[in-house]
């Protein structure tokens, strides 16, 4: 008889690790999404408070959408050519810096 672990125990370990990684990723995404929503509401509220114009509020929405539209293809190229974890980490840092400056 060998002293190796049972096959079920060997198979059960990797999914638990990936589940923990998924929970970490999910929590990060939820917190980031909530933060972006809070910033969007705060900026819109402040612009409407200062101008009273629905057009200015719409232009804020357009200004938030256009960079994503224009950068989607270059971002895909960068993600394909470089380590995606590093690209995502740098993008999060830049986003956090922009939010802090705002």
Describe the structure.
This protein is mainly alpha-helical. The protein has helices at residues 7-51, 54-81, 84-101. It has one domain (7-101). It has three helices and no strands. The radius of gyration is 21 Å and the shape is extended.
Quick summary:
The protein is mainly α. It has helices at about 5-50, 55-80, 85-100.
Architecture blueprint of SSEs:
Elements: H1 7-51, H2 54-81, H3 84-101
Helix pairs in contact: 1-2
List low-confidence stretches.
Answer: none
Q: Helix content range of the residues, please?
A: over 70%
Number of helices: 3
Distance between the termini: 66 Å
Number of strands: 0
Tell the overall outline.
Answer: extended
- Radius of gyration, taken over Cα atoms and rounded to an integer in Å: 21 Å
Mean pLDDT: 82
Keywords:
mainly alpha; 0% strand
């Amino acid at each position: 008889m060998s002293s190796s672990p049972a096959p079920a125990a060997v198979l059960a370990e990797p999914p638990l690790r990936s589940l923990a990684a998924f929970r970490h990723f999910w929590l990060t995404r939820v917190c980031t999404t909530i933060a972006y929503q809070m910033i969007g509401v705060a900026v819109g509220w402040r612009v409407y408070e200062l101008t009273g114009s629905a057009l200015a509020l719409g232009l804020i929405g357009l200004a938030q959408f256009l960079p994503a539209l224009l950068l989607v293809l270059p971002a895909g190229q960068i993600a394909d050519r470089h380590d995606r974890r590093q690209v995502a980490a740098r993008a999060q840092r830049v986003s956090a810096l922009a939010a802090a400056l705002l």
